[in-house]
Amino acid sequence: MPRAVGPGGTIVGMSSLPRPALAVIGGSGFYDFFDNDADHVEVDTPYGAPSAPVAIGEVEGRAVAFLPRHGKQHEFAPHTLPYQANMWALRSLGVRRVFAPCAVGSLRADWGPGTVAVPDQLVDRTSGRPQTYFDGGGIHVSFADPYCDDLRAAAVKSAGDLRVEESGTMVVVQGPRFSTRAESRWFAGQGWDLVNMTGHPEAVLARELEMCYAAVALVTDLDAGLEEGDGVHAVDVFAEFKKNLGPFKELMRRAVTAVDGDGTCERCRVHAGVALPFELP
To answer: Does residue 217 contact residue 119 with C-beta atoms inside 8 Å?
Structure first.
């Protein structure tokens, strides 16, 4: 059962909290979202605890949930993240629409650091990660278009002065290492635009729970195959993300307010006419 902890550490009843229909999942370097006080909710799920207690606050009068993907202190590496618990926890709190800001490497020389990309396609190159809630029952969800068009449009509309690319393909690698030059050139040669370590299975788990989901990617580096030198270094990635974090957070705040409606869009409702082995939270 969810347990709410107030800003001062006091226990508050869940009934006294707003029920957030929208959520933001913060990526590397994006560990908080609200300027004002927020309540923090500890959620138990059938898949264990999420990365951190879920913060619930307001953006322009709209209730929003925030979850730091890697934990408050970046405790979780990409391949150890509790993806199933994270998405289940958000759904159980009432969330139906999720923005997923993340750091990415660019596979294109013309998409340099500081570029914001809102991908429309995903390629999974991970391995060994639990990527479904349905281990039986013949449940197969539509995933041809992995991201919600409504949320993507809201993110693009909210870019302000940031350079934004309105589409693109993001390849998700296992990590935690960065790509070799050969891998990077291979990815680029396939026509893919961005490389990331956390976008899968997050996106498909959101779809299985019938939540709208959109990745909003901040380019922090050119991947190893695109430039000379000694490759990508984590310290440089974090520094670039930190430099752009303020404007990137403002983009996300504007995007939250730009979303029209609180419910799941028609495309992301994938279980119509299907008998599920359990009720969605």
So the answer is: yes
Verify whether residue 221 is a known catalytic residue: yes
Is the separation of the CB atoms in 171 and 104 below 8 Å?
Answer: no
Most distant CA pair in the chain: distance in Å?
56
What's the pLDDT score for residue 137?
82
Helix (H) / strand (E) element for 67: namely: strand 62-68
- Short-list 125, 103, 100, 102, CA closest to 205: 100
Q: For the chain, how far is it from start to end, CA to CA, in angstroms?
A: 11
pLDDT at 27: 83
pLDDT averaged per 10 residues in sequence order, the chain, 281 residues: 46 65 91 87 95 95 95 94 98 97 93 94 97 92 97 95 95 94 94 97 98 96 66 64 81 95 93 92 93
Per annotation, catalytic residue among 39, 124, 193, 221: 221
* Catalytic site residue from 44, 223, 260, 262: 223
Enumerate residues 6+ apart whose C-beta is below 8 A from 223: 105, 106, 107, 178, 179, 184, 187, 188, 195, 232
Distances (CA, A) of 170 to 65, 198, 208: 25, 11, 20
Structure tokens at 114: 């500081």
> Would you give the DSSP letter of residue 234?
H
0.85 surpassed by pTM: yes
Q: What is the DSSP string of 99-157?
A: EEEEEEEESSTTS-TT-EE--SEEEEE--S----S-SSS------SS-S-HHHHHHHHH
Predicted pLDDT of residue 227: 61
Pairing outcome for strands 54-59 and 62-68: antiparallel
Is there a contact between 215 and 117 (Cβ–Cβ < 8 Å)? no
Would you call 223 a catalytic residue per the annotation?
yes
Q: What is the dihedral of CA 245, 204, 67, 119, to 10 degrees?
A: 10
